[in-house]
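Usage

Read records sequentially. Each one opens with the input sequence:
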Amino acid sequence: MAEGGGESSQDKTEEPTGKRIEKSKEEGQVPRSKELNTTVILMVGSGGLLMYGAQIGNAIKNIMHSSFSLPREAIFDTNQMALYLFNAAMEAAGVLMPFLIALFIASIVGSIALGGWLLSAKAMAPKFSRMNPLKGLKRMFALKALVELLKAVAKVSVVLFFAVLILDSRTEELLGLGRESVLLAMEHAVQILGWSFFYLSCTMIVIAMADVPFQIYDHHKNLKMTKQEVKDEYKDTEGKPEVKGRVRQLQREIAQRRMMADVPEADVVITNPTHYSVALRYNPEKDAAPILLAKGHDQTALKIREIAKANDVEIVSAPPLARSVYHHSEIGQEIPSGLYMAVAQILAYIFQLKQFRRRVTTRPTMPDFPIPDDLRSDE
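and closes with the structure output:
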């Protein structure tokens, strides 16, 4: 434990979060294996030489032959010499191009085989801290530098071991070159060197197979987090509790203002005079069932009633129905089907009440609204 209550790098016991992994990718931190890249390039290079070696050799022979067998007039004509040079370069490029393209593709595939394709501006940005000689000395004597040194020694040892085995297996062939003709010996020597180089390149597979798992493990280990880092990231992602509480409060206020703005469109406000108010709308032309426009309790319920009075919306006191609609309906949604009959009676009662006020009918009596037991609420 670090002084002051902090956590050291040895306390990184938590798995990296998705945000930590994404951040590492943005910074260009992905597992890479130089040994894998080298192996792919060497394998493709040695294989390409075995496939195109004879063709490349013949092309070089032809270029040398044409370059050293010039007519007399061409030797003293600078324009002719430039043309011969251009033709030789084009012939060499034509025969070498497939081999060079294969090496170029191998270098790309080898570098992205582990970690995938990644283009990071942060990774390409210059870091002047790397130019600090003190930090450079610190990196030279760090544990990672020691590991890299041991890897290099191991790599040289493995390659040297297999090189000795390959040369030992080819000793008789190499000694037999002296008994062959010059042209045959040269062709045979090139063949021996080509296959020896290919076999020696194959030894890098062993090194790559050891390095790839190590790079994946080391990258995952570096991404691990302390418990405090996980907590801090959660706070940054989700927000501090006081901020979240303030956001929720603002959201409630906005929703309440929007809800209050819909109250004037209601056909009726049903109340439990001491606690609840619900505002309902039913427009047969666009509503399949009555819609709850607003609901609230205590001060909100009082505000709904004030807005309803100001906009001549009928207010009906029906405590059981008000509680049922309040607890079983959501704003902007249709009321439960079990309350259709009770709300229909409310709307019919309001229609009769309006008729009475115009002195068309006698004063209606408040009906007994039927509420199913599963929709009743005594709160």
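Summary fields computed downstream for this record:
- The first strand starts at residue 268 and ends at 272.
- Residues 1-9 have pLDDT under 50 and may be disordered.
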